[in-house]
Amino acid sequence: MGNINYKSRICDMELQNALNTMGAVLIEGAKWCGKTSTANHIARSTLFMQDPDNANSYRLMAETKPSLLLQGDNPRLIDEWQMSPVLWDAVRFEVDKRAKTGQFILTGSAVPEDNVIAHTGAGRFARLLMRPMSLYESEESNGTVSLSDLFAGKHDVESKSDLSLEQIAFAICRGGWPATIDKTGRVALRMSVDYVETIINQDVSRVDGVEKNPGRVRLLLRSIARNIATQASIQTILADVESTEVSFSNKTVATYLNALRRIFVIEPMSAWAPSVRSKTAIRTSPKHHFVDPSIATAVMRINNEKVLHDFEYFGFLFEALCARDVRIYAQSNDGDVFHYRDKSGLECDMIVQLHDGRWGAIEVKLGNKQIEEAAENLLKLKNKVDTGKMKEPSFLMVLTGGQFAYKRKDGVLTVPVGCLKN
């Protein structure tokens, strides 16, 4: 079923591995991030639940005899399965009956409510989270520095990025949406604006059936965009929204944020809790992030030229871009990404921790002027972590918007985002 124009994705291998070990794979992620294309590239037969010509008959069939919808060559793709949540249990039952791996791929751009499926799918389903494209996948990073190599102790990095700050600003505003990667200028920037309008006017209400005021959704998204890559409290967000003379209750904000999480629009970054040598209180509030930085620029209605003229905000957006990419690269190495901040004020933008316990620390700096300070910070963090209880860091890295990748005398790596890959 593969598309000859398909641009390969980092998660292609993750999907193949999951199909080799489980009966079904669930690919979740934001709308337009490429789930269907990726699944369709490997599927042998497909069922598109949103096909306008057949959607009603598919839904009726799902209610009466769902097993008929599962017939076809395997792996069979069931796209936007949550349109008929009964399909989940039907797939689970069929996987048990057939007792074979690689039977079904389900894709969905919304997490269904807990009460709509009878079983969790444990032991039958592998879950795969898909995000928009990283700079390496869009061929804007040359991939000369590999996260996997860094974890393997290969630290002799020496390369050069071809990405200018102007190109980085454009990549932030365009986003990693597959449909925009080959587009230029206003056409490329338009899609993230359309995406945000769809979220505001349709998707955020559709996910849980609770009607939400589009004006309030817009104000909330704007406040998150203004506080991107920070630990701003919900009270700060509330105060920001209410400065426009729109009142919001804590409960309403919680409902809206939950809906935005369930359609994979926001992806907060959790705090890291390592074993530390001294009794330092670690701040536990998450950092605000969208699944793609273009959501922030689209809802703020700013383009790449405006980003270049506000260097402070550019720095926050650059951190958001790096967070998206590092999350994609970490996932393919079986890891997660956290941030660190303690009561003494020591902080670190990203901690990549693999499930085998290895970890690396990353500070994000747009320009070269702050590299020195960032390196000092990373070394302080290394000294603070109790390496008797945890492993030594696999690497310390300053991720930059600059040109050159190299290893400093103190062992800290300086790596442009235009050189990084998984």
Name some characteristics of this structure.
alpha/beta; 7-stranded mixed β-sheet; 2 domains; 5-stranded parallel β-sheet; 38% helix; globular; Rossmann fold; 422 residues
Structure commentary:
α8 packs across α9 and α8 packs across α11. The model has no long low-confidence stretch (mean pLDDT 91). α4 links the parallel β3 and β4. The protein is α/β, with parallel strands linked by helices. The strands form three sheets. The protein has a seven-stranded mixed sheet with strand order 7-12-13-11-10-9-8, sandwiched between helices. Strands 2-3-4-1-5 form a five-stranded parallel sheet, with helices on both faces. The protein has two domains: 120 residues, Rossmann fold, CATH 3.40.50.300; 277 residues, no CATH class.
The proportion of residues in beta strands is 15-25%
The number of distinct helices, counting runs of at least 4 residues, comes to 14
Count of DSSP strands? 14
**How many angstroms does the end-to-end distance come to?**
27 Å
Q: How is the main sheet built?
A: 7 strands, mixed
Structural class: alpha/beta
Q: Strands across the major sheet, in which order?
A: 7-12-13-11-10-9-8
Structurally, the number of domains stands at 2
Q: Supply Rg.
A: 22 Å
